[in-house]
Every structure is written in C-alpha cells, then in structure tokens.
Amino acid sequence: MKRIAILTAGGDTPALNATLYGAVQRANELEIEVYGLMKGFDGMLSERLPHVRLNPLFTTIPELDPCMGGTIIGASRSYIDPDQTDILKAVSARLEQIGIEGLICIGGDGTINGMQPLSELFPCTLAPKTIDNDLGLNHIDEPNEWVRETADNGEDRYRHEMTRDDVSLGEIVNYVTPGYATAVFVVAQSIDRIRTTAESHRRIAIIEVMGRDSGYIALGAAYGQPDMILIPEVELDYPKIIDRVRHLYDLQKSAVLVIGEGVCDSDGPLGAKSSSVDPAGNIKFSGAAERLAEILAAELGDEYFQKNRRHESASSAIFTRKLGHTQRGGRPILFDRFYAAQLGGKALELLVSERNNFLSTLSWSQDGGFTLSELSANKLRDRWGIIHAREVHPSLYDENRFRPSQLGRDYLNPIFRRAIGHEDLEVLHAKLFASGNLLTRYQSINVEVQKRIRYLD
Ligand code: F6P
Predict the structure, then answer these.
(1) Is the pTM of this model over 0.90?
(2) Cβ count within 10 A of residue 67
(3) How many CA atoms lie within 13 Å of 204's alpha carbon, on the beta-carbon side?
(4) pLDDT of residue 284
(5) What are the helix (H) ranges across 223-333?
(6) Could you tell me the CA-to-CA distances from 453 to 64, 169, 196, 390 in Å, in that order?
(7) What count of other Cβ atoms lies within 10 Å of the Cβ of residue 155?
(8) Res 81: pLDDT
(9) Domain 3-138+332-388+421-450: assigned CATH number
(10) Of 325, 300, 332, which is closest to residue 313 (Cα–Cα)?
(11) Low-confidence ranges of the chain (pLDDT < 70)
(12) Which ligand 1 atom is the nearest neighbour of the CA of 211?
C-alpha cells in the first residue's frame, strides 16, 4: 500500500490524536502516505472529500500532537446507511480517485457498525476508542447471547440474555478502550471536589457520569470514593437505595452518589432519552440525576432534613452535577496516550496485511499484562449483524454495596495503577497558571489544520 486514509468518528475522546499519531508514525516507517478525512464519515460523504495530508515526505505534521485532546481532523456522528449501495459505491470511487488503497476508522460501536457495509467494498480496519469503554466483549461468545424481539411499535428490539454468572479477566475481549482512563481520571477528581462541599453544607450530591447504557465510567468512579455507585446494568431498587442514603446521611451528614446517565428502573431509563443518528442504535440520555433527586426528595421528605436543622427542605439538601463533556475533553493521561498510539499503529499494520474488517484490540492477562491483539469485526456481530455496546458484567459490580465487586476491583487496578505519568503533573504545574495565558487568546488548532485542507477538485 502506498496511500491510505484515516478518519475519527463518533463522540471524541482525549486520546484520538494519540491514535492518529500512532498510525501515522507506523506509516512513516513503512513509507505509506496518510490522508486524514475531515469530520469522520461526513468528509467521505462530501463530493469534495476534504482531506489533510498527515505525513508529507513521511514526516508527521507538527499539528498532530499525541498529548492534545480531541482530534485535529474533526469528528461527526454521520454514517452511511447500509442500504444505500449507490452512496457506498460513490464513496469508494471517490477514495480511489485520490489513490487511497485502504481506510482506518478510529471509533467505537457506532463507527464499527457504520464501517461494516463499507468494508464489503473497500479495505477497512478499525482502531478502537470511546470513553464509554463499551467496544468489546466480556467473553468471546457474548454476541450469541442477544435475542431479537418485536417491540409494541413493530420495530426490532434487541435484548441481552446473559448466560454466564462470571467471567475471568483474561477472556475479556478488548479489555479497555483509549479515552476511558482519562474520563475516569476527570470523574474521580470531580468527586473529590464535590464531596468536600457536600460535607460542609450537609448535602446529598448526585453526580451523573457519561457512558450511555454502559456503567464502566460509573464503576471507575469508585477511585473517587463516592458513597454509592448506581450503574445502568442493574435496575434501581428504590427501597434499598433510600435505606442506604438515609443510613449514610444519619451517619455523616452528607452523601455522594454517582450514577451512570443510562440508569433504569422498572419503567426504563430514568432520564429523558432521544435517539441519535448512530447506527449502533445508541440513545442520548439526559436528566437521570435530576429525576433521582426528585425521587429521593419525595421519599425522604422535608421533615427529615428539618428535624436536625440541617436544611429547610429536601430539595435544598440534594443537589445534582452532570459532569458532561469535561469527561471527554482535554489532555489524555499516560495510559490513554500510550495505548491509543499502539492501537493506531496496529490498525495500520492490519490494513497493510490485508486483514480487512479487523480491529486492533488490547488484551490483559495476569502474567503478561497488556498486549496488543486483533479481532475480526465479524466476531463482534450478533446473528443479525449488529454490534452491541458492551455492558458491565454483573460479576464486576456488588449491587448490595453499590460499588465494584472484588472482580471489579481486580478489573480496574491494572488500568489505573500506573495510568498517570509524572509529565501529566508537570504539564499542569507549568501550563495552567502560565502568565502568558492572561495575555494570549487560545490558538485553535482548527485554524492551522484549515490551511492544510485539500479537496478533490
Ligand atoms: O459515546 C460517548 C458519549 O460521550 C456518551 O457517553 C454520551 O452519552 C454521548 O457520547 C454524548 O454525545 P454528544 O456529545 O454527541 O451529545
């Protein structure tokens, strides 16, 4: 291969530039040109095919900094409808027109689903990324556990019928995805900050974290030592939750709860949901923390807070914080930078060695630690061809103690033990309060990259 393209699709992560960097560095060694397609699948869908040469003369452009969050080539949630074969063919012809021989997609479950029809016409591989940590399997047979049903509105609905009570950590396929560690780093720090103010003001804090239907970010939040963690995979048991909150509040005059944004009760997701354009069928969630706050306020009642003169009313004693996009932005920590770059390089090698529709993965074993690996995307697909978001396996979470189980702690520790590098702290020390920040406006990378964009015509 002499020339390939690369794109970043779906929600961004702090480690996308690091993945791009890893792929481009490997391409430099193999003397392959890399064109970055702008704004994910959006760029390919445009007749003008906006693109940037990422390694002219096999030298990585200086704008591509693996330590910078986000993606210099932009991202979007547009995908190609698998039934629109004319569009698929046009995209593939457009890529061929500028001499592109293969494509690397950097993305999560939405991207890999979107890549499936294209991979039948054009060589593609995927480098994984997602703060949600939901691209992978708890064990290799998991796709076969999905069943398809018809919903009341006549649409297909997929349900996961888990067949295994436990998993061993060595059998987890794609143990962790780049972006997850930095998201948990942000969450754990935020909990620490919110807790002290909750303690001072005798309040109950409900912190909502991202992850959609997957509770990995909430699980990792345990490093910030919240009092309770509620994950989307386990239906809310209100009496049990309220008993625990009351006990904690009586004991310590404050409580900190972390909830995954997709938490559900017997009526379904707690927050409002709206559908996204994502081919994985992903849903956007909002408002779970507010809803839980209302439920707790109603159940505990004003009198409970007034009796010890701690608060006027239940609603003034309970506050919510949605950590939102802070979890997805900023500088990636060492773990993410390092493995993102490795996975990018591996995705390039897979493309060169004609492993069409494969993805690079990260495995973990007690003896060998983290190792790079690979998987055919077909292994991720259920009987109907859908790739589902990985859920936190029940054996990783202790639903009685609202926290990671022993296995959950064993799962998290290899990722986070050495996740922060010394330089991560040095950068904070050197840059945050640099006097120049007061003088100079932030110099957006988009301005520099714009100068490098080329079009088909
Ligand atoms: O999938 C990544 C993610 O950050 C989810 O955790 C979150 O629900 C969603 O994207 C938010 O997407 P957007 O930024 O497009 O609203």
Answers:
(1) yes
(2) 17
(3) 30
(4) 79
(5) 238-252, 288-300, 302-306, 314-317
(6) 14, 44, 48, 36
(7) 9
(8) 86
(9) 3.40.50.450
(10) 300
(11) 275-281
(12) 6
Give CA angle at 384 (380, 387), nearest 5°: 30
CA distance 136 to 390: 6
Say what the pLDDT of residue 125 is. 98
CA of 210 to the centre of ligand 1 (A): 7
Q: Are strands 228-230 and 204-209 parallel, antiparallel or unpaired?
A: unpaired
Q: How many CB atoms lie within 10 A of CB 243?
A: 11
What is the Cα Rg of the chain in Å? 23
**Model pLDDT, residue 322:** 97
Q: Which numbered atom of ligand 1 lies nearest the CA of 285?
A: 8
Query: Is 110 close to ligand 1, i.e. is its CB under 6 Å away?
Result: no
User: Which atom of ligand 1 is the closest one to the Cα of 284?
Assistant: 8
**Which residues have CB under 8 Å from 384's CB, separation 6+?**
148, 156, 158
* Sign of the CA dihedral running 318, 324, 329, 334: positive
3-state helix, strand, coil in the chain (%, to 5): 40, 20, 40
Q: How many angstroms does the Cα of residue 185 sit away from the middle of ligand 1?
A: 17
Q: What angle, rounded to 10 degrees, do the helices at 334-352 and 180-200 form?
A: 160
Do the domains 3-138+332-388+421-450 and 181-328 sit in the same CATH topology, yes or no?
yes
Cα angle, residue 93 at apex, residues 92 and 95 outer, rounded to 5°:
65
Distance 273 CA to ligand 1 centre (A): 12
Q: Does the C-beta of 212 come closer than 6 Å to ligand 1?
A: yes
Could you tell which of 12, 184, 210 is best to mutate to test the pocket of ligand 1, judged by most ligand atoms within 8 Å of the CB?
A: 210
Residue 279: its pLDDT value, please?
63
- Could you tell me the sign of the dihedral formed by the alpha carbons of 247, 252, 258, 259, in that order? positive
Nearest CA to ligand 1 atom 16: 284
Q: Domain 181-328 is classified in which CATH homologous superfamily?
A: Phosphofructokinase domain (3.40.50.460)
Asked whether 142 and 127 are in contact (CB, 8 A), the reply is no
CA dist., res. 326 & res. 457, Å (int): 38
Per-domain residue ranges for the chain? Answer: 3-138+332-388+421-450, 181-328
**Beta carbons within 8 Å of 284's beta carbon, 6+ residues apart:** 273, 274, 275, 276
CB 409, CB 401: distance < 8 Å: no
Q: Which residues in 124-143 are b (16+ Cβ under 10 Å) and which e?
A: bbbbbbbbbbbbbbbbeebb
The model's pLDDT over 100-111, given as tens digits with 9 standing for 90+, comes to 999 999 999 999
Interatomic CA distance for residues 123 and 119, integer angstroms? 6
**DSSP strand pairing (397-398 vs 3-8):** unpaired
